[in-house]
């Protein structure tokens, strides 16, 4: 499907990287980006998001290049989407819908499919309900008596019932996860979760650490379903390592909400391996985006090790960095070549051993303030 990409620069420093990402998202969804149209504004236009002049420029490109789809690098309101489709005479997708579409294509497990469908229906419900408001305003108008209102009520009710059913399924899955975690807790097995920006290399690191053979590809959102494996790490014994869905800037709230069952592995982990693409020019912004989602799901309290991956592309050497208290802060690795992965295993074991000792202390004696900084 031939598409135009549209992005507005509101003065943020990661605009170019965000557009590159939109290109990859569009390709991941199966679209063929033909042209990218950009503009600068202080704030979005209420009716068309881009303003009438820019909308006409996009409309001309759609007509000249015979494009079927226009993808916006932003979240559009239902009204803006409808207005744009009328002006552009083409299907309009916003960033949220695009990400949801990719998730729908990639979900393989029953749980993944349920989570994606719930997210899509929550997104659709705002469009459905607001899309029908003109009928509600004209209740009883000529040609709108009965069927129009009935259709709206039916659509709302069916959608509401499906959302309710999906929430019930996810609630059951969450209870199952909680039971599994309690079993791990009773056996005192540590849990480690891999988190990070999409395409940072989490699945490749997961495969190398666990020999799991999970699908890993150079594409956005290759992993949607959480996979867990047990790994033996010397003194700390068996550890459960989980690979999770990648994060992205402006990750739709519907997805964060729907994927709570999956992301709870992260909330309850003993340690997070925050995988960073060391070669990315916007890696610091990506780290902040991931931390923002972690705050949103209540996982910002979990200890983190930053794993700087792809050091071969960034011209860096394998290394371990400690903070002023001697705590491991960063490990530099290449999942592709295997460089530094022995250091990563040692770092995980050392961090968990410290946590194990702290657990032992907290059971036997109160921890004084000096111990806290040891």
Could you describe the 3D structure shown?
The protein is an alpha/beta fold and 374 residues long. It has 2 domains: 2-93, Rossmann fold; 189-362, Rossmann fold (3-Layer(aba) Sandwich), CATH 3.40.50.300. The chain is 50% helix and 17% strand. The chain is built from 14 helices and 11 strands. The strands form 2 sheets. A 7-stranded mixed beta sheet has the order 6-7-5-8-9-11-10, sandwiched between helices. Strands 2-1-3-4 form a 4-stranded parallel beta sheet, with helices on both faces. Helix 3 (78-88) links the parallel strand 3 (69-72) and strand 4 (91-93). It is globular and about 65 Å long. It starts with a strand and ends with a helix. It comes from Herbaspirillum robiniae. This is GTPase HflX. Residues 190-356 form the Hflx-type G domain. GO terms for molecular function: GTP binding; GTPase activity; metal ion binding; ribosome binding. GTP binds at residues 196-203, 221-225, 243-246, 309-312, 334-336.
Summary tags:
four-stranded parallel beta sheet; 2 domains; seven-stranded mixed beta sheet; single chain; 374 residues; 14 helices; Rossmann fold
Radius of gyration: 24 Å
- Would you tell me the structural class of the helices and strands? alpha/beta
CATH topology title of the largest domain: Rossmann fold
Percent of residues in beta strands?
15-25%
How many strand segments? 11
Give start-end ranges of low-pLDDT stretches.
129-149, 362-374
Question: What percent of the residues sit in helical stretches (DSSP H or I)?
Answer: 40-55%
Q: Name the CATH architecture of the largest domain.
A: 3-Layer(aba) Sandwich
| Overall pLDDT confidence | 81
GO molecular function: GTP binding; GTPase activity; metal ion binding; ribosome binding
Binding site for Mg(2+): 203, 223
InterPro entries: G_HFLX_dom (IPR030394), GTP-bd (IPR006073), GTP-bd_M (IPR032305), GTPase_HflX (IPR016496), GTPase_HflX_N (IPR025121), GTPase_HflX_N_sf (IPR042108), P-loop_NTPase (IPR027417)
Main location: cytoplasm
């Amino acid at each position: 499907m031939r598409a135009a990409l549209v992005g507005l620069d509101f003065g943020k420093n990661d605009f170019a990287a965000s557009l590159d990402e939109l290109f990859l998202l569009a390709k991941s969804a199966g679209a063929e980006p033909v042209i990218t149209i950009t503009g600068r504004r202080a704030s979005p236009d209420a009716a068309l998001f881009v303003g009438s002049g820019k909308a006409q420029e996009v409309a001309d490109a759609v007509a000249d290049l015979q494009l079927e789809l226009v993808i916006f690098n932003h979240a559009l309101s239902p009204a803006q989407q409808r207005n744009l489709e009328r002006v552009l005479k083409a299907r309009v997708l916003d960033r949220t819908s695009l990400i949801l579409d990719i998730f729908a294509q990639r979900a393989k497990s029953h749980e993944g499919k349920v989570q994606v469908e719930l997210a899509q229906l929550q997104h659709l419900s705002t469009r459905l309900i607001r899309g029908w408001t003109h009928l509600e305003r004209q209740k009883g108008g000529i040609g709108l008596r009965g069927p129009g209102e009935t259709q709206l009520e039916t659509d709302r009710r069916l959608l509401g019932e499906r959302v309710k059913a999906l929430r019930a399924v996810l609630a059951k899955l969450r209870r199952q996860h909680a039971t599994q975690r309690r079993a791990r807790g009773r056996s005192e097995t540590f849990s480690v979760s891999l988190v990070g920006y999409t395409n940072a290399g989490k699945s490749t690191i997961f495969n190398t650490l666990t020999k799991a053979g999970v699908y890993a590809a150079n594409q956005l959102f290759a992993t949607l379903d959480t996979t867990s494996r047990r790994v033996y790490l010397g003194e700390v014994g068996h550890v459960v390592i989980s690979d999770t869905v990648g994060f992205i800037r402006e990750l739709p709230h519907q997805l964060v909400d729907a994927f709570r069952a999956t992301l709870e592995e992260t909330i309850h982990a003993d340690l997070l391996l925050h995988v960073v693409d060391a070669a990315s020019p916007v890696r610091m912004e990506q780290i902040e985006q991931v931390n923002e989602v972690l705050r949103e799901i209540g996982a910002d309290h979990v200890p983190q090790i930053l794993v700087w991956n792809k050091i071969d592309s960034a011209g860096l050497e394998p290394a371990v960095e400690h903070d002023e208290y001697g705590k491991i802060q960063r490990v530099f690795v290449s999942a592709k070549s295997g460089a530094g992965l022995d250091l990563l295993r040692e770092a995980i074991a050392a961090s968990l051993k410290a946590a194990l000792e702290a657990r032992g202390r907290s059971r036997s004696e109160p921890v004084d303030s000096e111990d806290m900084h040891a």
